[in-house]
Amino acid sequence: MNKRTLGNSDISIAPFVFGGNVFGWTIDEKTSFTLLDAFVDLGLDCIDTADVYSRWVPGNKGGESETIIGSWLKKTGKRNQVVIATKCGSSMNASDPSKNLSKQYIIKAAEDSLKRLQIDHIDLYQSHYDDPNTPVQETLEAYEQLIKEGKVRAIGASNFSPERLKESLDTSANLGLPAYVSLQPENNLYDREGYEKALEPLCRENDLGVITYYSLASGFLSGKYRSEADLHKSKRGAGIKKYLNERGERILKALDHTAHNYSSTPAAVALAWVIARPGITAPIASATSVSQLQELAQSVSLNLPQEVINELTEASAY
To answer: Which residues form the NADP-dependent oxidoreductase domain (predicted)?
Structure first.
């Protein structure tokens, strides 16, 4: 499988990232292990999670996803077959939603993640959300310490504004501090505008790797939701109503057409479109069954012709 280098780092990954938010949320540990084994068997290698996954589930406190991944790594011994990406900075306290990228907080969060993951280093450690109350320099100095200690290989950002991302990159360059090698933005066939207008030029200019989340628009692009009557089909249904409009119908029609022509599925085609976009390293997608994972993984080998990519881009114009 052709791998892609993540920005300016020494990390290369297959162009499909498993979203670990489902571990300890919509699937239990046993099912998670089965899916992780299948993921590696498919020749894929990057798993994305966060310390806060999945605090929102009643009875959870955060860290459940990392804990499951860590138990799987210990049980299977497959650490050298995977790239582990996790995040810090999102609130682990239900009563305090503030973000925190202070040096003290990051150092402790990294130690906690390493313990849950049962590993000695994190491959890609990402700022989950910007913290406007902490100077950029302080955040980067925390990452510098972790990198020097061998606990982190590379750093990335997620959910950053173009202004704060640029400030971070400039600070790294001016002070000789570690620089973000990647960005994790929301981006898919429907939700394109925010990334393409504001962030894509900055990422391309600075050779940042781009790992997209909500790559299937919370499942809408799978074609499973075509009317309000379908919204009860999953726990994410409530967030999909916004896609049920003329533009959403146009996108699904184009996905159906392409999927039919290439003996594929709308979900695999939607991911293949992301993979084919200039500057994209890989989309993140989650699965709750092996069959679903195998379907989504077809996107890696779909290799749609440029004219088909252009047709999908035109159909999803904003």
So the answer is: 17-315
**Total-model pTM:** 0.96
Residue 281 lies in a domain: no
Cα 112 to Cα 94: distance, rounded to the nearest angstrom:
18
- Return the structure tokens found at 266: 């709308």
CA distance 19 to 287: 8
Assess if residue 263 is contained within a domain: no
Please tell me the predicted confidence (pLDDT) of residue 265: 98
Q: Give Cα separations from 84 to 70, 79, 183 (angstroms).
A: 10, 9, 15
Specify if 282 maps to a domain.
no
CB 281 within 8 A of CB 211: yes
pLDDT per residue as tens digits for the range 230-286: 888 776 677 899 999 999 999 999 999 999 999 999 999 999 999 999 999 999 999
Identify the domain containing residue 180 by its residue range: 4-184
State yes or no: is 53 an active-site residue: yes
On whether residue 255 sits in a domain, the answer given is no
For the chain, the domain total comes to 1
User: Which residues of the chain have a pLDDT value below 70?
Assistant: 235-236
| Active-site position among 53, 125, 213, 225 | 53
Q: How far is CA 40 from CA 34, 81, 304, in A?
A: 10, 7, 24
